[in-house]
Request: fold
Amino acid sequence: MWELILFCLLAYCMGSISSAVLVCRLAGLPDPRTTGSHNPGATNVLRLGNKTAAIATLLGDAIKGVIPVLCISQINPAPLMVGSVMIAVFLGHLYPVFFRFQGGKGVATAVGAISALCWPAGFLLLATWGIVFFLSRISSLSALVAAALAPFYIGLFLNIQFAIPVAIISLFLFWRHRANIIRLLENSEPRMGQK
Reply:
């Protein structure tokens, strides 16, 4: 039990490192929590007009999802341990202790964690996101479709014990995108390139 708590705490702290805030500070950009969509994520950083900063944010958020899952998979690959660490690093991104609990929506971190758990599932997630985005030019819709399919992708390659934590992450992704869902239903969600 103590091992589970320790690794989850470490994963949460890693997830709490806000790539968007740190990258924007280094690049001399405004705090993404106070401008644009007020979301500290790669899409909002891209809206600030800096593609390099957006890519750095995306990679940073994904990598912090990858590292704890890879580590725990080597130390203790039990489904409970790995699933708990996945959720912990994801919640760290959503509610970062180092940044007043003002986190992002968690898409890149979730994809990173799922890819570390099962790279074919991660590949399918990226392909799904890419296809939906190519057709719609709407980042949130792409993320929601990928989130909805994530547990099924894991189920294709692993057992239900791993699909359950991924399903929990997917539910949180839908919750964090609730405002986007309303705009999608109202057909008012902006497409990439629109102000």
